[in-house]
Amino acid sequence: MPEGDTVWSVARRLDEALAGRVLTRSDLRVPRFATADLTGRRVLDVTPRGKHLLARIEGGLTLHSHLRMDGAWRVFATGERPRGGAEHQLRAVLGNAEFTAYGYRLPVLELLRTAEEERVVGHLGPDLLGPDWDAEEAARRLAGDPGRPLGEALLDQRNLAGIGNVYKSELAFLAAVSPWLPVGELPPDVPERLAVTAHRLLEANKARPDRRTTTTGRSGERLYVYGRAGRACPRCGRPVRKAELGDRVTYWCPGCQRGPGPAAP
Q1: Which UniProt keywords apply (predicted)?
Q2: Positions in the chain whose pLDDT score sits under 50
């Protein structure tokens, strides 16, 4: 599933192509909104909220989408043949005289009143890349369920919005604690340090083509543990391991990340 920095980048591309321009093409290919016609309306902005995308349209409307595992928005010059998905995978087309945006495999696509946006994003915690970012509040939410494994708490968008599976594993490694460690067993300063680090990493990566959490410049070492099962931990040299945490694959180093590992099957 795309993480907050990826969604921010998608929103920026859509905003650059659509904002301030009048729609000359509108096609929402979901049954509930198939008859909606947005042509003649100006797109005001496209804004990310955690992993959600909000395209605000003249007349008090918002087109809300979420990419989840394999959704995608792609932008092409109007008249150019779109690439990156089959015709039957299209769920939305928004076009103007210069650019056309195509939404493929979008599992969430709905048109709502802008005044009702809180209905779809009001449950989210502080947005790591949003103007409302509040590290102290995010830390308070992270620590709110002491018995919950850290990895699950980090993925819960109600705590802080924008973290996905990659950052979950990388943040636990940087804090030198196991993703299975209950948040109540973390040192008191760790929740806020995790929130601050998450914000720093997403800010640093939001405009990069290749995500990086490491500080080394050596090729192939962009991430510390994610996707590196069986390879040497860059901190202690022991093999990085992977296991399921909830329904998500998690990477960690049992040598230098304090706390329990996964329960035996």
Answers
A1: DNA damage, DNA repair, DNA-binding, Glycosidase, Hydrolase, Lyase, Metal-binding, Multifunctional enzyme, Zinc, Zinc-finger
A2: none
